[in-house]
Design goal:
Elements: H1 14-28, E1 31-33, E2 40-42, H2 45-52, E3 58-59, H3 80-90, H4 94-98, H5 101-113, E4 120-122, H6 123-128, H7 130-140, H8 147-158, H9 166-190, H10 196-202, E5 204-205, E6 208-209, H11 212-243, H12 245-253, H13 258-268, E7 275-279, E8 283-285, E9 288-290, E10 295-298, H14 300-303, H15 338-355, E11 359-361, E12 380-383
Parallel strand pairs: 2-10
Antiparallel strand pairs: 1-2, 3-7, 4-12, 5-6, 7-10, 8-9, 11-12
The protein binds protoporphyrin IX containing FE.
């Protein structure tokens, strides 16, 4: 039996109570059904992992988030997914990621230069929001003067607007993004540049190249998946370190622990809280049957706090032995940008803590209303002003 509206992330107060709601779901309603909205939700670590690993029964095609959009990698099933993934992975190699490190560090330092002497800042607006969009923009080849506009479009895609159907909510900014990319791709067709868009034009597998719709769909995914999630990882992490000054001090003294801390940030406040699947056949789980055709939300954010999978799951601990969290998903849709996001977050915290080792929150940051994202609306901090260290 489901409690009506227990899990309803479109409610403005949901994010304040998210972890409390998730615990009730895991303990009492591991196969939750929202009676009015009609969707189902899985919240336990083992169940979310198993569903994400079973693409035959839990399909990524035709969910409510992808309606009205061009085909995108994360909304495709095999075999179309696998050939597209193979193709784009070639333009998205670990080498290309690693080569980005000096550029990421340069951008992080430049952003810190902008406010380190002021003694106060909104770390979300001035740092966490800027870094990923400049990195992905520079990687893809979006001209600097267009990046703010892209940011605004992608943010309006992620924002939940209760009362408006999903299709209407996403279509307008999505069309603007497609149009802009179509223009940028046309420029590169005429003259290749040293960027990912040009590499994607030439990426080829078994004699096949990406079609125009696939190119646009993929650029769209990169800019949408690569901006907001990484921003929230950095912003959520900055708040967690403000709330745990002893752990922050440890990272200042031992920066080699930052990669482990980033994994714990991902686990503790997962930027992507939930993503949808469609049940292709009836699925029986914990004595409940999810009917064929049902929309099923996988709650990564809850799975990562499941005490069945993590000791003291509600304790933030940067020294935790590498947690096997699900923040980047699991299975064949495992985040293609995971290494880039990890790299950006590592560099962001290395540079932030070097320049501003001690900061306090000016007020408790609020959460944005969102069905999918764990996102603060601002991270206002104060600190000792410091010149270049
Ligand atoms: C902290 C940052 C990030 C988080 C938390 C995150 C999370 C995720 C998750 C949970 C999935 C699985 C989707 C599913 O199973 O339906 C995913 C897939 C994906 N992510 Fe990320 N992501 C992040 C950053 C990035 C970045 C920086 C990029 C690209 C530049 C990216 C590109 C993608 C792509 C292309 C997929 C689809 C892969 C596929 O379907 O094969 N992500 N991400």
């Amino acid at each position: 039996v489901s409690e009506p509206r227990l899990y309803d992330p479109s409610r403005p107060d949901f994010q304040d109570r998210a972890h409390e709601v998730y615990r009730t779901l895991r303990d009492l309603h591991p196969v939750y059904h929202h009676p009015e909205a009609g969707f189902w939700a899985l919240s336990r670590f083992d169940d979310v992992r198993a569903a994400a690993s079973d693409a035959a029964r839990f399909s990524s095609e035709g969910t409510d988030t992808s309606q009205g959009l061009l085909p995108m990698i994360q909304a495709l099933d095999p075999p179309r997914h696998d050939s597209l993934r193979q193709l784009v992975s070639r333009a998205f190699t670990p080498g290309r990621m690693a080569a980005m490190e000096p550029e990421i560090r340069r951008i992080a330092r430049e952003l810190l230069d902008g406010f380190a002497l002021r003694g106060e800042a909104d770390l979300l607006e001035s740092f966490a929001r800027q870094l990923p969009s400049r990195v992905i923009g520079s990687m893809l080849g979006v001209p600097p003067e267009r990046r703010e506009q892209f940011l605004e479009w992608t943010e309006s895609l992620v924002e939940a607007q209760p009362g408006k159907p999903a299709t209407e909510r996403v279509r307008h900014p999505a069309m603007r993004i497609y149009q802009e990319f179509a223009r940028l791709l046309a420029e590169r067709r005429a003259r290749r540049q040293d960027d990912l868009m040009s590499a994607l034009l030439d990426a080829e597998i078994e004699g096949r190249r990406l079609g125009e719709d696939e190119l646009l769909g993929f650029c769209f995914v990169l800019i949408v998946a690569g901006n907001d999630t990484t921003t929230n990882l950095i912003a959520n992490g900055a708040v967690l370190l403000a709330d745990h000054p002893d752990q922050r001090k440890l990272l200042v003294e031992q920066p080699e622990r930052i990669p482990g801390a980033v994994e714990e940030m991902l686990r503790f406040e997962s930027p992507a809280q939930a993503l949808p699947r469609i049940a292709r056949e009836p699925v029986e789980l914990h004595g409940t049957t999810i009917p064929a055709g049902a929309l099923v939300r996988l709650l990564w954010g809850s799975a990562n706090r499941d005490e069945r999978a993590f000791e003291a799951a509600d304790r933030f601990d940067v020294t935790r032995p590498t947690p096997r969290h699900l923040a980047f998903g699991q299975g064949l849709h495992f985040c293609l940008g995971a290494n880039l996001a990890r790299l950006e977050a590592r560099v962001a915290f290395e540079e932030l803590l070097r320049r501003i080792p001690d900061y306090t929150l000016r007020e408790r940051p609020g959460w944005r209303t969102s069905i999918w994202a764990r996102a603060h609306s601002a991270v206002p901090v104060r600190f000792e002003p410091r010149a270049v260290g």
